[in-house]
């Protein structure tokens, strides 16, 4: 059980990029150094325990006490902090968005909402939610912000953690060295559904990434069997949600590619058979107090028709 945190999709100890590698080194450095300090203190304690007590007069006792305070309370912590700074500052520099020699890195805007993630690619105008698609092997500058309270961006296998603050944009540079899914999680308590604020990260080979961006710029045509669902969606759901070419709501996750997401409700439901229908009917039970009202006004078969259409929205 003690080793359970040492692996898996969200482990800092399984880094897959330079920023995460630096954080992992720092972790191991701290582990070794504090292990040594623990050993030292525990050995001193054993020695003190086994030794016969000596008798001091008041002045000697003051001297000995002072020596321990200086060594154990000033020197040892001071040295520990110096070692950590000497080790940590160069590693920290690797996480900063410093200018590179070549062309500037790809920019992606990630905004935290209670309780979902908005993801924008300003260069192409592509928007998605609750998932972050990255190219492999490329440095990426994530511009982090919040629309309401303080959230924190953290994909432990790719990099450090950075707060997302209302009214400010902070930049984090990441690079994923391997293709594949990673898991991120809001890392600053942001309300009752904070735990249901998972970010599905997917690193794609450059060609696949470009293909995804290109596919996302084509507005999907609506098949005839979904026309009624779209008519019901546009005036009500469309107030909050955007679907490219259909509606332009900005208060809720962009749904233009919702059918291709690995989950719904930022990690609340896996995207499996029937998940969309279940989410639309039961979202306030599955994720209480989330920002979407109950859809009681809509007949259930309309809701199911909308779910069937949304499932077809894949890039
Ligand atoms: C008042 C605004 C509002 C309205 C109206 C609204 N939604 Fe939502 N919707 C939200 C918010 C906010 C979320 C994010 C909830 C969360 O995960 O915390 C959401 C989430 C969703 C999601 C999950 C997206 C994802 O990636 O996890 C789907 C699907 C969805 N809504 C569909 C609909 C449909 C269909 C309708 C109309 C029947 C609708 N919504 C009406 C605000 C709204
Ligand atoms: Cu949070």
UniProtKB/TrEMBL annotation:
Highest taxon of source: Bacteria
Cross-referenced InterPro entries: CcO_II, CcO_II-like_C, Copper_CuA, Cupredoxin, CuRO_CcO_Caa3_II, Cyt_c-like_dom, Cyt_c-like_dom_sf, Cyt_c_oxidase_su2
Keyword line: Copper, Electron transport, Heme, Iron, Membrane, Metal-binding, Respiratory chain, Transmembrane, Transmembrane helix, Transport
Key word Metal-binding present: yes
Membrane topology: Multi-pass membrane protein
Chain ranges of the Cytochrome c domain: 224-314
Compartments reported by the entry: Membrane
UniProt xrefs under CDD domains: CuRO_CcO_Caa3_II
GO (cellular component) term, any one: membrane
Catalytic activity: 4 Fe(II)-[cytochrome c] + O2 + 8 H(+)(in) = 4 Fe(III)-[cytochrome c] + 2 H2O + 4 H(+)(out)
Ubl conjugation recorded as keyword: no
Domain Cytochrome oxidase subunit II copper A binding: 103-215
Main location: membrane
Gene Ontology process terms (BP): ATP synthesis coupled electron transport
GO molecular function: copper ion binding; cytochrome-c oxidase activity; heme binding; oxidoreductase activity
Transmembrane spans: 25-47, 68-93
Functional description taken from the UniProt entry: Subunits I and II form the functional core of the enzyme complex. Electrons originating in cytochrome c are transferred via heme a and Cu(A) to the binuclear center formed by heme a3 and Cu(B).
Family: Belongs to the cytochrome c oxidase subunit 2 family.
UniProt name for this protein: Cytochrome aa3 subunit 2
Source organism: Azotobacter vinelandii (strain DJ / ATCC BAA-1303)
Gene transcribed to yield this protein: coxB
């Amino acid at each position: 059980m003690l080793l359970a945190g040492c692996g898996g999709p969200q482990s800092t100890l399984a880094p897959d990029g330079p920023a995460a590698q630096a954080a992992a080194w720092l972790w191991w450095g701290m582990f070794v150094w504090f292990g040594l300090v623990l050993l030292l203190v525990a050995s001193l304690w054993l020695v003190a325990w086994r030794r016969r007590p000596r008798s001091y007069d008041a002045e000697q006792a003051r001297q000995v006490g002072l020596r321990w305070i200086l060594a154990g309370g000033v020197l040892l912590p001071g040295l520990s902090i110096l070692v950590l700074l000497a080790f940590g500052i160069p590693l920290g520099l690797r996480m900063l968005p410093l200018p590179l020699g070549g062309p500037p890195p790809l920019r992606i805007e990630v905004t935290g909402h209670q309780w979902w993630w908005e993801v924008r690619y300003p260069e192409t105008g592509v928007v998605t939610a609750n998932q972050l698609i990255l190219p492999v092997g490329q440095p990426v500058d994530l511009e982090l912000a919040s629309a309401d309270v303080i959230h924190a961006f953290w994909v432990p296998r790719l990099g450090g953690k950075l707060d997302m603050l209302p009214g400010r944009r902070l930049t984090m540079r990441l690079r994923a060295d391997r293709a594949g899914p990673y898991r991120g999680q809001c890392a600053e308590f942001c309300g009752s559904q904070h735990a249901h604020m998972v970010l599905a990260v997917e690193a794609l080979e450059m060609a696949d990434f470009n293909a995804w961006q290109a596919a996302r710029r084509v507005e999907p045509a609506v098949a005839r069997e979904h026309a009624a669902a779209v008519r019901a969606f546009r005036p009500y759901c469309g107030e909050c949600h955007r679907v490219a070419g259909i509606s332009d709501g900005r208060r809720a996750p962009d749904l233009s590619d919702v059918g291709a997401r690995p989950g719904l409700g930022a990690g609340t439901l896996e995207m499996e058979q029937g998940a969309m229908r279940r989410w639309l009917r039961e979202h306030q039970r599955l994720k209480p107090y989330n920002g979407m009202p109950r859809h009681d006004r809509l007949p259930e078969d309309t809701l199911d028709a909308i779910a069937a259409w949304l499932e077809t929205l894949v890039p």
